[in-house]
């Protein structure tokens, strides 16, 4: 599915975490995924993690008494993701379109002259 997104404003990064009880049920997970897409969010990275209880407790403990920092959390889940590079290179392409959603990869990417590819 290819669409053109034209926005005069820069896109913002949002981190969505889907908890295990939703992931455990394929129909619920698909409904959550469709809700994200129907609300016109672009999915630019996706990752499945299996955390032990201790890892989850540590993650939530670090954030329970502070203002959530999206940059810090994105870096925790996607250590190779460069927010600066994304804003400089990928964001303008995604904002101005055309944009292609790849169901296989579960992410959106810029659809350039050579066809869909990573932004």
UniProtKB/TrEMBL annotation:
<dbReference type="InterPro" id="IPR034907">
    <property type="entry name" value="NDK-like_dom"/>
</dbReference>
<keyword id="KW-0546">Nucleotide metabolism</keyword>
<dbReference type="GO" id="GO:0004550">
    <property type="term" value="F:nucleoside diphosphate kinase activity"/>
</dbReference>
<keyword id="KW-0808">Transferase</keyword>
<keyword id="KW-0547">Nucleotide-binding</keyword>
<comment type="similarity">
    <text>Belongs to the NDK family.</text>
</comment>
<protein>
    <submittedName>
        <fullName>NME/NM23 nucleoside diphosphate kinase 6</fullName>
    </submittedName>
</protein>
<dbReference type="InterPro" id="IPR036850">
    <property type="entry name" value="NDK-like_dom_sf"/>
</dbReference>
<keyword id="KW-0460">Magnesium</keyword>
<keyword id="KW-0479">Metal-binding</keyword>
<dbReference type="InterPro" id="IPR037994">
    <property type="entry name" value="NDPk6"/>
</dbReference>
<keyword id="KW-0067">ATP-binding</keyword>
<keyword id="KW-0418">Kinase</keyword>
<dbReference type="GO" id="GO:0046872">
    <property type="term" value="F:metal ion binding"/>
</dbReference>
<dbReference type="GO" id="GO:0005524">
    <property type="term" value="F:ATP binding"/>
</dbReference>
<feature type="domain" description="Nucleoside diphosphate kinase-like">
    <location>
        <begin position="11"/>
        <end position="85"/>
    </location>
</feature>
<dbReference type="Pfam" id="PF00334">
    <property type="entry name" value="NDK"/>
</dbReference>
<dbReference type="GO" id="GO:0009117">
    <property type="term" value="P:nucleotide metabolic process"/>
</dbReference>
